[in-house]
Write a structure and sequence with these properties.
heterodimer, A: alpha+beta, about 55% helix, B: alpha/beta, Rossmann fold, globular
């Protein structure tokens, strides 16, 4: 049996003699592998992103929103009716064992001014437990206190984006900013959280006591809230907590059995799961495109190998006449097919890596290259070489030496 | 006559082909014995079964009936891979069209049969260089066939046939593609192999004056051996090509 090393040398020499042909042949495989590599990198990046954000939102987080209005049969968006109050939030925290912490959120949009700089941002009025529920720490300075809450103190904690917009390199801590028409002292700066899954910037926010937002910014007389954030004690209790919150609120809001909830409970994990499903669907779509490209590429390899066998019939005849066995000929052409598609795979790996990086840069997507993707890409391309190279190689190996020698 | 002196022994060899519905009998019972050191020329008109006989002797094909012993081994019923092994071990081939690998150096062409023997590269190279020196091409090792003349190409082919130290050198119209001067050159080389090394050679040719260089001439006609005679004084190739080839008309030196 001819040594495989010799077969590899022969294959490389043969490919070298037909560079353009080899390059055109492997184009399909190149595109297929590049698609697989880029897609896997983007997919893995997206997955990592989603996981990171699940962490960023706070662990085991449930969100309760006020109900929607139904006026004349048309339902308005969730949260458009003030059905959720601070008391509801307190009741959830007080009565449900499965709940670890609760933070009501009353938000307002305001123009924020300091000196000649200003910015528009979202103000979140909440309680001290907000930082724990959102798993968000105050990087510098300190959070507000329960005492601040009681007296509706004019204090605020800036998100990093707001701080940068208003102060840039200047000192923010201790400064007084104007939120709407209310002067307010900066007591803390929040740790950076980065971008959310919908392109929103978590750091573009100001957090202050809920009583301050209610009385001084919104001028409300009721204790309504825009949402209640609930941190559940354990991931296993999520479903249970959701049910308990639902029944507690139905009871508190005196909703009869046949009526619908006037609130909704959102589970961030569900939302992320939906995102993940979308991502997986997209991945599957791209993968099938890649599979088709690989199939076409494989057929291209088979085609060119058949041409090569026909062209080299006389050579095969000579080799057989002087003692090559059919296995030697099979090995020679099989190795050539594998080398051809493996070259395509390598080029595709490079292209996919480049394309993934470029996409990641221009679209600001997270791209993660895993070694396993490279192994899969190269494995797939060699597999294609074997599968689609076998038929032509077998045809070469089965040639009759007399016929082959007579071939012109 | 001891058994080991017999290189080739054919008994009742038949070969039939099925062409469409008709069975064509190319060989109808050939008996042939070749002893070690013989230089046999096989002649005959085209369609006589000469090529079929050549293919059978070379183990490129299998007889339909009869027994064929080569160097003491019965090779009549071997399968394709076993015949490949026999060709590699026992037979050196020289073809009409040289049949060298294009775009491959003379050295690599000569190494080829040794590759299929699984021989290591340094030993292979040493033997191939020796064989090429032997045919006078020691300076053309790295030339490809396209860079060599017809005669040189045929000498590369002869080196490739000799490098395996075969029991039998089988030449199929070795001078068919060569001009008369080169023909004489190649014939002289074959004669010296026969004379100096006792090489057993079977040469298929349809040219009588080429056949005259052999020590024995077998003529095939209609699938049978029509005549088998010894040549008392073989023509010495290259000595006087003018008298050897009347067509030349004294134009050569």
């Amino acid at each position: 049996m001819i040594m495989w090393l010799m077969a590899v040398r022969l294959a490389l020499r043969s490919l070298n003699r037909n560079k353009l042909r080899a390059a055109l042949t492997v184009l399909g495989i190149l595109i297929g592998v590049a698609a697989v590599v880029a897609m896997t990198a983007l997919g893995d990046g997206a997955k990592a992103n989603i996981e990171r954000q699940l962490g960023a939102l706070g662990t085991n987080l449930l969100m309760v929103f006020p109900g929607s209005n139904t006026s004349g049969g048309a339902r308005t968006e969730a949260g458009s009716r003030p059905t959720l109050s601070e008391e509801d939030a307190e009741a959830i925290g007080r009565e449900l064992y499965s709940v670890q912490a609760v933070a009501p959120v009353l938000s307002a949009a305001a123009q924020v001014v300091v000196g000649s700089r200003n910015t528009a941002t979202r103000i979140q009025g909440t309680t001290v437990s907000y930082f724990r529920v959102r798993n968000w720490s105050v990087a510098r300075g300190s959070a507000f206190t329960d005492a601040d809450l009681r007296i509706s103190a004019r204090v605020c904690i800036l998100g990093e984006t707001v701080r940068r917009n208003l102060f840039d390199r200047g000192e923010a801590l201790g400064a007084t900013i104007r939120v709407g028409r209310m002067p307010c002292t900066v007591v803390g700066i929040l740790a950076t959280k980065g971008q959310g899954s919908f392109g929103n910037d978590y750091d573009d926010t100001i957090v202050m006591p809920i009583s301050t937002v209610r009385a001084r910014l919104r001028g409300l007389s009721t204790r309504e809230v825009n949402q209640v954030l609930v941190s559940v004690r354990d991931a296993a209790l999520m479903k249970r907590a959701e049910e308990q919150i639902t029944s507690l609120l139905r009871q508190r809001h005196r909703i009869s059995a046949q009526d619908e909830n006037d609130f909704s409970v959102g589970n961030m994990q569900d939302i992320m799961a939906t995102l993940e499903t979308t991502r997986a669907t997209l991945s599957a779509l791209l993968l099938s495109v890649a599979a088709i490209a690989l199939l076409v590429g494989g057929i291209g390899v088979m085609n060119i190998m058949l041409v090569s066998v026909t062209e080299r019939t006389r050579e095969i005849g000579i080799r057989l006449a002087i003692g090559a066995r059919s296995g030697d000929i099979l090995a020679q052409f099989l190795v050539e097919a594998v080398a051809l598609s493996l070259l395509g795979g390598l080029a595709g790996l490079g292209l996919g890596w480049g394309a993934g990086t470029l996409l990641g840069k221009t679209m600001e997507w997270t791209v993660t290259f895993s070694p396993s993707a490279a192994v899969v890409a190269l494995g797939t391309s060699s597999g294609i070489g074997v599968i689609f190279g076998y038929f032509p190689a077998r045809r070469a190996a089965k040639l009759d030496p007399i016929q082959a020698l007579r071939h012109e | 006559m001891s058994a080991d002196e017999i290189v080739l022994e054919m008994r009742g060899i038949e070969k039939a082909y099925l062409t469409g519905e008709v069975v064509f009998r190319a060989l109808k019972g050939v008996d042939l014995t070749v002893r070690r050191g013989e230089f046999l020329a096989v002649g005959g008109p085209s369609g006589s079964g000469k090529s079929t006989l050549m293919n059978l002797i070379g183990c490129l094909d299998r007889p339909t009936a009869g027994q064929y012993r080569l160097a003491g081994h019965d090779v009549s019923g071997l399968d394709a891979d076993a015949r490949a092994f026999v060709r590699n071990q026992l037979i050196g081939f020289i073809f009409q069209g040289f049949n060298l690998l294009a775009r491959t150096s003379a050295l690599e062409n000569v190494e080829l049969p040794l590759i299929y023997r699984g021989m290591g590269s340094s030993e292979r190279r040493r033997r191939a260089v020796d064989a090429l020196r032997h045919v006078g091409l020691g300076t053309k090792l790295d030339n490809t066939p396209a860079q060599l003349s017809g005669g040189q190409q045929q000498r590369v082919a002869i080196a490739r046939a000799l490098v395996t130290e075969p029991k039998l050198l089988l030449a199929d119209e070795p001078t068919g593609n060569l001009d008369s001067t080169t023909t004489e050159e190649v014939l002289a080389l074959l004669q010296s192999l026969h004379r100096d090394q006792g090489m057993t050679i079977i040469m298929v040719t349809h040219e009588p004056d080429v056949a005259q260089c052999a020590s024995r001439i077998v003529v095939v006609r209609d699938g049978l051996i029509a005549s088998d005679r010894r040549v008392e004084t073989p023509r010495q190739a290259g000595v006087d090509p003018v008298s050897a080839n009347p067509l030349l008309g004294g134009a050569s030196s």
